[in-house]
Amino acid sequence: MKAVVLDAVNKISLKSVDQDKLQSNELLVRVEAAGICGSDRHILHGTYPANYPVILGHEFSGIIENAGTSSRFKVGDRVNVNPNIACGNCLPCKTNLVNLCRNNIAHGVNRNGGLADFVAVPETQLFKLPLSLAPEVGAFCEPIACCIQGLDLANIRQGDSVAIIGGGVIGQLMVQLVKKAGAEVILLSTRQKSRREMAEKLGATHTIDPQNSNSNDPFIGTAGVAPGGFDVVLECAGTKETLQQSLEIVRLGGTVILFGVMPQNEVFEIKPFDIFVRQIRIQGSFTGSAVHSKAVDMVAEQSLVLLPLITHLVGFEEVPKLLMGNPLSGEVKTIAKPA
Ligand code: NAP
Ligand code: ZN
Q1: Which of 55, 79, 47 is nearest to 316 (CA)?
Q2: Residue closest by Cα to atom 13 of ligand 1
Q3: Which among 11, 79, 168, 201 would be 20 to 30 A from 116, CA to CA?
Q4: CA–centroid distance, residue 289 to ligand 2 (Å)
Q5: pTM for the full model?
Q6: 93: helix, coil or strand?
Q7: Alpha-carbon distance 98 to 94, whole Å?
Q8: What is the pLDDT of residues 125-158, one digit of tens each?
Q9: Could you identify the atom of ligand 1 that is nearest to the CA of residue 169?
Q10: What residue's CA is closest to ligand 1, atom 27?
Protein backbone atom coordinates (compact mmCIF):
# COMPACT_ATOMS: atom_id res chain seq x y z
CA MET A 1 0.00 0.00 0.00
CA LYS A 2 1.02 3.68 -0.35
CA ALA A 3 1.73 5.73 2.76
CA VAL A 4 3.25 9.05 3.81
CA VAL A 5 6.18 7.86 5.92
CA LEU A 6 8.35 9.93 8.23
CA ASP A 7 11.67 8.05 8.49
CA ALA A 8 13.47 10.67 10.59
CA VAL A 9 13.25 14.41 11.33
CA ASN A 10 12.64 16.24 8.02
CA LYS A 11 12.79 12.96 6.05
CA ILE A 12 9.32 12.38 4.63
CA SER A 13 8.12 10.61 1.47
CA LEU A 14 5.22 8.77 -0.10
CA LYS A 15 6.24 5.15 -0.50
CA SER A 16 5.05 1.59 -0.87
CA VAL A 17 5.01 -0.22 2.47
CA ASP A 18 3.55 -3.44 3.85
CA GLN A 19 0.25 -3.21 5.68
CA ASP A 20 0.45 -3.64 9.44
CA LYS A 21 -0.55 -7.16 10.51
CA LEU A 22 -3.90 -7.17 12.32
CA GLN A 23 -3.69 -7.95 16.04
CA SER A 24 -6.61 -9.79 17.64
CA ASN A 25 -8.20 -6.57 18.98
CA GLU A 26 -7.77 -4.63 15.72
CA LEU A 27 -9.79 -3.92 12.58
CA LEU A 28 -8.47 -2.82 9.20
CA VAL A 29 -9.67 0.59 8.04
CA ARG A 30 -9.46 1.72 4.39
CA VAL A 31 -8.76 5.42 4.70
CA GLU A 32 -11.12 7.79 2.87
CA ALA A 33 -9.72 11.12 4.03
CA ALA A 34 -7.10 12.45 6.42
CA GLY A 35 -6.68 15.99 7.71
CA ILE A 36 -3.33 17.79 7.68
CA CYS A 37 -2.68 19.70 10.88
CA GLY A 38 -0.06 22.08 12.27
CA SER A 39 1.12 19.32 14.63
CA ASP A 40 2.16 17.24 11.59
CA ARG A 41 4.68 19.99 10.75
CA HIS A 42 5.91 19.99 14.37
CA ILE A 43 6.36 16.20 14.25
CA LEU A 44 8.12 16.48 10.88
CA HIS A 45 10.58 19.10 12.14
CA GLY A 46 11.18 17.29 15.44
CA THR A 47 9.59 19.96 17.68
CA TYR A 48 6.87 17.53 18.85
CA PRO A 49 8.07 14.14 20.14
CA ALA A 50 7.26 11.11 17.93
CA ASN A 51 8.56 7.62 17.11
CA TYR A 52 10.26 7.00 13.75
CA PRO A 53 9.65 5.55 11.28
CA VAL A 54 5.96 6.35 11.42
CA ILE A 55 3.11 6.89 8.98
CA LEU A 56 1.72 10.37 9.72
CA GLY A 57 -1.96 11.36 10.06
CA HIS A 58 -3.98 11.56 13.29
CA GLU A 59 -7.22 13.00 11.86
CA PHE A 60 -8.84 10.33 9.70
CA SER A 61 -11.90 8.33 8.78
CA GLY A 62 -12.56 5.41 6.50
CA ILE A 63 -14.38 2.19 5.75
CA ILE A 64 -13.95 -1.13 7.55
CA GLU A 65 -12.09 -3.44 5.17
CA ASN A 66 -11.58 -6.33 7.61
CA ALA A 67 -13.71 -6.48 10.76
CA GLY A 68 -11.51 -9.10 12.46
CA THR A 69 -13.39 -10.65 15.35
CA SER A 70 -15.54 -7.58 16.03
CA SER A 71 -19.21 -7.94 16.83
CA ARG A 72 -19.79 -4.15 16.82
CA PHE A 73 -18.52 -3.37 13.31
CA LYS A 74 -18.86 -5.05 9.93
CA VAL A 75 -17.10 -4.74 6.59
CA GLY A 76 -18.35 -1.61 4.79
CA ASP A 77 -19.13 0.41 7.92
CA ARG A 78 -17.82 3.97 7.91
CA VAL A 79 -15.76 4.76 10.98
CA ASN A 80 -13.90 7.60 12.57
CA VAL A 81 -10.79 6.98 14.66
CA ASN A 82 -9.91 8.45 18.05
CA PRO A 83 -6.15 8.43 17.47
CA ASN A 84 -5.21 8.57 21.17
CA ILE A 85 -4.94 5.18 22.82
CA ALA A 86 -4.86 5.55 26.61
CA CYS A 87 -3.36 2.87 28.85
CA GLY A 88 -6.30 2.69 31.27
CA ASN A 89 -4.00 2.07 34.24
CA CYS A 90 -2.18 5.31 35.11
CA LEU A 91 -3.44 7.90 37.59
CA PRO A 92 -4.98 10.25 34.97
CA CYS A 93 -6.70 7.28 33.29
CA LYS A 94 -8.13 6.18 36.64
CA THR A 95 -9.28 9.68 37.62
CA ASN A 96 -11.32 10.47 34.52
CA LEU A 97 -8.54 12.41 32.75
CA VAL A 98 -7.78 9.92 29.97
CA ASN A 99 -6.61 12.70 27.65
CA LEU A 100 -3.70 13.16 30.07
CA CYS A 101 -2.70 9.46 30.05
CA ARG A 102 1.04 9.29 30.75
CA ASN A 103 1.43 6.23 28.49
CA ASN A 104 -0.68 7.47 25.59
CA ILE A 105 0.07 6.00 22.15
CA ALA A 106 -1.27 8.00 19.20
CA HIS A 107 -1.90 6.99 15.59
CA GLY A 108 0.22 9.25 13.39
CA VAL A 109 2.66 10.01 16.23
CA ASN A 110 3.84 6.82 17.96
CA ARG A 111 2.13 4.25 15.73
CA ASN A 112 1.06 4.24 12.11
CA GLY A 113 -1.55 6.84 11.16
CA GLY A 114 -4.09 7.71 8.51
CA LEU A 115 -1.98 9.06 5.63
CA ALA A 116 -2.02 5.55 4.19
CA ASP A 117 -4.33 3.37 2.14
CA PHE A 118 -5.01 1.14 5.16
CA VAL A 119 -4.55 1.37 8.94
CA ALA A 120 -4.91 -1.28 11.65
CA VAL A 121 -6.91 0.27 14.52
CA PRO A 122 -7.90 -1.15 17.92
CA GLU A 123 -11.67 -1.59 18.16
CA THR A 124 -11.83 0.68 21.25
CA GLN A 125 -10.77 3.63 19.07
CA LEU A 126 -13.49 3.28 16.43
CA PHE A 127 -16.76 5.21 16.17
CA LYS A 128 -19.45 4.70 13.52
CA LEU A 129 -20.26 7.50 11.08
CA PRO A 130 -23.19 7.48 8.62
CA LEU A 131 -22.40 6.48 5.02
CA SER A 132 -24.61 9.35 3.88
CA LEU A 133 -22.03 11.96 4.97
CA ALA A 134 -19.36 13.40 2.68
CA PRO A 135 -16.25 11.26 3.34
CA GLU A 136 -14.09 14.31 4.06
CA VAL A 137 -16.04 15.51 7.12
CA GLY A 138 -14.96 12.57 9.26
CA ALA A 139 -11.45 14.00 9.36
CA PHE A 140 -12.80 16.91 11.45
CA CYS A 141 -13.83 14.76 14.45
CA GLU A 142 -10.41 14.94 16.13
CA PRO A 143 -9.98 18.75 15.99
CA ILE A 144 -13.63 19.22 17.01
CA ALA A 145 -13.05 16.99 20.03
CA CYS A 146 -10.09 19.19 21.03
CA CYS A 147 -12.32 22.29 20.79
CA ILE A 148 -15.06 20.65 22.87
CA GLN A 149 -12.47 19.83 25.53
CA GLY A 150 -11.32 23.47 25.59
CA LEU A 151 -14.88 24.77 25.82
CA ASP A 152 -15.85 22.32 28.57
CA LEU A 153 -12.97 23.81 30.56
CA ALA A 154 -14.01 27.38 29.67
CA ASN A 155 -17.46 26.87 31.14
CA ILE A 156 -19.18 29.39 28.85
CA ARG A 157 -22.56 30.63 30.08
CA GLN A 158 -25.60 32.00 28.27
CA GLY A 159 -24.98 35.63 27.31
CA ASP A 160 -21.18 35.53 27.78
CA SER A 161 -18.74 37.55 25.69
CA VAL A 162 -16.05 35.37 24.12
CA ALA A 163 -12.95 36.42 22.18
CA ILE A 164 -11.32 33.87 19.88
CA ILE A 165 -7.76 34.80 18.90
CA GLY A 166 -6.61 33.11 15.67
CA GLY A 167 -8.80 32.26 12.70
CA GLY A 168 -7.35 28.97 11.48
CA VAL A 169 -9.55 25.88 11.39
CA ILE A 170 -9.60 25.80 15.20
CA GLY A 171 -10.83 29.40 15.40
CA GLN A 172 -13.54 28.69 12.80
CA LEU A 173 -14.73 25.60 14.70
CA MET A 174 -14.64 27.53 17.98
CA VAL A 175 -16.88 30.27 16.53
CA GLN A 176 -19.56 27.67 15.80
CA LEU A 177 -19.23 25.83 19.11
CA VAL A 178 -19.19 29.03 21.17
CA LYS A 179 -22.41 30.09 19.46
CA LYS A 180 -24.02 26.76 20.38
CA ALA A 181 -22.83 27.28 23.97
CA GLY A 182 -25.00 30.41 24.13
CA ALA A 183 -22.44 33.21 23.97
CA GLU A 184 -23.93 36.55 22.99
CA VAL A 185 -20.78 38.35 21.84
CA ILE A 186 -18.44 36.25 19.68
CA LEU A 187 -15.34 38.04 18.45
CA LEU A 188 -12.75 36.49 16.15
CA SER A 189 -9.41 38.26 15.74
CA THR A 190 -7.27 37.16 12.79
CA ARG A 191 -5.22 38.95 10.15
CA GLN A 192 -6.48 37.31 6.96
CA LYS A 193 -9.60 38.92 5.54
CA SER A 194 -10.98 35.71 3.98
CA ARG A 195 -10.89 34.09 7.41
CA ARG A 196 -12.73 37.00 9.04
CA GLU A 197 -15.39 36.79 6.34
CA MET A 198 -15.70 33.04 6.87
CA ALA A 199 -16.15 33.52 10.63
CA GLU A 200 -18.85 36.14 10.11
CA LYS A 201 -20.82 33.62 8.03
CA LEU A 202 -20.35 30.98 10.74
CA GLY A 203 -21.70 33.09 13.59
CA ALA A 204 -19.05 35.57 14.75
CA THR A 205 -20.85 38.73 15.86
CA HIS A 206 -17.63 40.77 15.44
CA THR A 207 -14.28 40.33 13.70
CA ILE A 208 -11.12 42.39 14.07
CA ASP A 209 -7.92 42.62 12.05
CA PRO A 210 -5.36 42.89 14.88
CA GLN A 211 -2.97 44.74 12.56
CA ASN A 212 -5.33 47.71 12.37
CA SER A 213 -4.59 48.98 15.87
CA ASN A 214 -1.71 48.93 18.29
CA SER A 215 -3.96 49.13 21.32
CA ASN A 216 -6.71 46.89 22.70
CA ASP A 217 -9.31 49.66 22.37
CA PRO A 218 -11.22 47.97 19.51
CA PHE A 219 -11.50 44.90 21.78
CA ILE A 220 -12.22 46.27 25.27
CA GLY A 221 -12.27 50.10 25.08
CA THR A 222 -15.46 51.97 25.98
CA ALA A 223 -16.55 51.83 22.31
CA GLY A 224 -14.99 48.37 21.80
CA VAL A 225 -16.61 44.96 21.35
CA ALA A 226 -16.62 44.07 25.09
CA PRO A 227 -16.00 47.21 27.17
CA GLY A 228 -13.91 46.28 30.20
CA GLY A 229 -13.02 42.78 29.02
CA PHE A 230 -14.27 39.43 27.75
CA ASP A 231 -15.72 36.76 30.03
CA VAL A 232 -13.67 34.15 28.17
CA VAL A 233 -10.70 34.44 25.80
CA LEU A 234 -9.76 31.42 23.69
CA GLU A 235 -6.11 31.74 22.65
CA CYS A 236 -6.06 29.75 19.39
CA ALA A 237 -3.01 31.18 17.63
CA GLY A 238 -0.17 29.82 19.74
CA THR A 239 2.12 32.87 19.85
CA LYS A 240 3.57 34.87 22.74
CA GLU A 241 2.01 38.02 21.32
CA THR A 242 -1.50 36.53 21.27
CA LEU A 243 -1.13 35.03 24.73
CA GLN A 244 -0.07 38.45 26.03
CA GLN A 245 -3.08 40.02 24.38
CA SER A 246 -5.40 37.33 25.76
CA LEU A 247 -4.29 38.16 29.31
CA GLU A 248 -4.91 41.85 28.62
CA ILE A 249 -8.41 41.58 27.17
CA VAL A 250 -9.97 39.14 29.64
CA ARG A 251 -12.27 40.75 32.24
CA LEU A 252 -11.64 40.77 36.00
CA GLY A 253 -12.34 37.24 37.20
CA GLY A 254 -12.45 35.94 33.61
CA THR A 255 -10.91 32.86 31.98
CA VAL A 256 -8.15 32.52 29.37
CA ILE A 257 -8.01 29.14 27.67
CA LEU A 258 -4.48 28.36 26.55
CA PHE A 259 -5.41 26.31 23.49
CA GLY A 260 -2.72 27.30 20.97
CA VAL A 261 0.49 25.28 21.09
CA MET A 262 3.86 26.96 21.46
CA PRO A 263 7.22 25.28 20.92
CA GLN A 264 8.08 22.94 23.80
CA ASN A 265 10.85 25.15 25.23
CA GLU A 266 9.19 28.55 24.75
CA VAL A 267 9.27 30.79 27.83
CA PHE A 268 6.68 33.52 28.56
CA GLU A 269 6.88 36.30 31.15
CA ILE A 270 3.85 37.08 33.31
CA LYS A 271 3.20 39.59 36.08
CA PRO A 272 1.90 37.35 38.88
CA PHE A 273 0.48 40.36 40.72
CA ASP A 274 -1.66 41.18 37.72
CA ILE A 275 -3.10 37.65 37.60
CA PHE A 276 -3.70 37.85 41.38
CA VAL A 277 -5.28 41.27 41.58
CA ARG A 278 -7.50 40.67 38.54
CA GLN A 279 -8.27 37.09 39.66
CA ILE A 280 -7.73 35.69 36.16
CA ARG A 281 -7.99 31.97 35.48
CA ILE A 282 -5.43 30.65 32.96
CA GLN A 283 -6.53 27.18 31.88
CA GLY A 284 -4.62 24.79 29.62
CA SER A 285 -6.45 22.37 27.31
CA PHE A 286 -4.80 19.24 25.93
CA THR A 287 -6.34 17.20 23.09
CA GLY A 288 -9.88 15.88 23.05
CA SER A 289 -9.63 12.14 23.46
CA ALA A 290 -11.89 12.12 26.53
CA VAL A 291 -14.72 13.74 24.57
CA HIS A 292 -14.11 12.20 21.13
CA SER A 293 -17.54 10.56 20.98
CA LYS A 294 -19.27 13.94 21.46
CA ALA A 295 -17.42 15.25 18.39
CA VAL A 296 -18.40 12.21 16.33
CA ASP A 297 -22.04 12.73 17.32
CA MET A 298 -21.91 16.38 16.20
CA VAL A 299 -20.38 15.40 12.85
CA ALA A 300 -22.91 12.58 12.38
CA GLU A 301 -25.80 14.95 13.15
CA GLN A 302 -24.31 17.51 10.73
CA SER A 303 -24.69 20.19 13.37
CA LEU A 304 -21.55 22.08 12.29
CA VAL A 305 -20.61 23.69 8.97
CA LEU A 306 -17.52 21.76 7.84
CA LEU A 307 -17.19 21.41 4.06
CA PRO A 308 -16.62 25.16 3.47
CA LEU A 309 -13.65 24.96 5.88
CA ILE A 310 -11.84 22.69 3.39
CA THR A 311 -9.82 25.16 1.35
CA HIS A 312 -7.42 22.57 -0.13
CA LEU A 313 -8.14 18.98 -1.19
CA VAL A 314 -4.97 17.06 -2.18
CA GLY A 315 -3.76 13.55 -2.99
CA PHE A 316 -1.42 11.70 -0.60
CA GLU A 317 1.41 12.23 -3.13
CA GLU A 318 1.27 16.00 -2.53
CA VAL A 319 1.55 15.75 1.25
CA PRO A 320 5.38 15.47 1.73
CA LYS A 321 6.05 18.67 -0.24
CA LEU A 322 3.14 20.44 1.39
CA LEU A 323 4.31 19.61 4.91
CA MET A 324 7.90 20.63 4.14
CA GLY A 325 6.64 24.06 3.05
CA ASN A 326 4.79 26.77 4.99
CA PRO A 327 0.97 26.76 5.34
CA LEU A 328 -0.66 27.68 2.01
CA SER A 329 -2.07 31.14 1.44
CA GLY A 330 -5.73 31.29 2.46
CA GLU A 331 -5.51 27.81 3.95
CA VAL A 332 -8.05 26.88 6.60
CA LYS A 333 -8.14 23.08 6.30
CA THR A 334 -6.28 20.77 3.95
CA ILE A 335 -7.69 17.29 3.52
CA ALA A 336 -5.68 14.53 1.83
CA LYS A 337 -7.22 11.56 0.03
CA PRO A 338 -5.74 8.31 -1.30
CA ALA A 339 -5.38 7.87 -5.08
P1 NAP B 1 -3.45 27.89 12.38
O2 NAP B 1 -4.11 27.59 11.12
O3 NAP B 1 -2.01 28.16 12.38
O4 NAP B 1 -4.21 29.11 13.04
C5 NAP B 1 -3.63 30.03 13.91
C6 NAP B 1 -3.81 31.38 13.26
O7 NAP B 1 -3.66 32.40 14.22
C8 NAP B 1 -2.75 31.75 12.24
O9 NAP B 1 -2.91 31.09 11.02
C10 NAP B 1 -2.95 33.25 12.14
O11 NAP B 1 -3.97 33.54 11.16
C12 NAP B 1 -3.54 33.60 13.51
N13 NAP B 1 -2.69 34.59 14.17
C14 NAP B 1 -1.36 34.66 14.21
N15 NAP B 1 -0.98 35.78 14.88
C16 NAP B 1 -2.11 36.41 15.24
C17 NAP B 1 -2.39 37.62 15.95
N18 NAP B 1 -1.41 38.40 16.40
N19 NAP B 1 -3.68 37.95 16.18
C20 NAP B 1 -4.67 37.17 15.72
N21 NAP B 1 -4.47 36.02 15.03
C22 NAP B 1 -3.20 35.65 14.80
O23 NAP B 1 -3.70 26.72 13.42
P24 NAP B 1 -5.03 25.90 13.79
O25 NAP B 1 -4.97 24.58 13.16
O26 NAP B 1 -6.25 26.72 13.63
O27 NAP B 1 -4.70 25.71 15.33
C28 NAP B 1 -4.69 26.80 16.21
C29 NAP B 1 -3.76 26.52 17.39
O30 NAP B 1 -4.34 25.50 18.22
C31 NAP B 1 -2.39 26.00 16.99
O32 NAP B 1 -1.41 26.54 17.86
C33 NAP B 1 -2.51 24.51 17.20
O34 NAP B 1 -1.26 23.90 17.43
C35 NAP B 1 -3.40 24.47 18.42
N36 NAP B 1 -4.13 23.23 18.65
C37 NAP B 1 -4.33 22.87 19.95
C38 NAP B 1 -5.06 21.75 20.27
C39 NAP B 1 -5.31 21.40 21.71
O40 NAP B 1 -5.64 20.27 22.01
N41 NAP B 1 -5.20 22.35 22.61
C42 NAP B 1 -5.60 20.97 19.24
C43 NAP B 1 -5.40 21.36 17.91
C44 NAP B 1 -4.67 22.50 17.63
P45 NAP B 1 -3.95 34.94 10.36
O46 NAP B 1 -2.83 34.82 9.37
O47 NAP B 1 -5.30 35.05 9.76
O48 NAP B 1 -3.69 36.00 11.40
ZN1 ZN C 1 -3.08 5.99 31.18
Answers
A1: 55
A2: 166
A3: 168
A4: 12
A5: 0.97
A6: helix
A7: 8
A8: 999 999 999 999 999 999 999 999 999 999 999 9
A9: 26
A10: 170
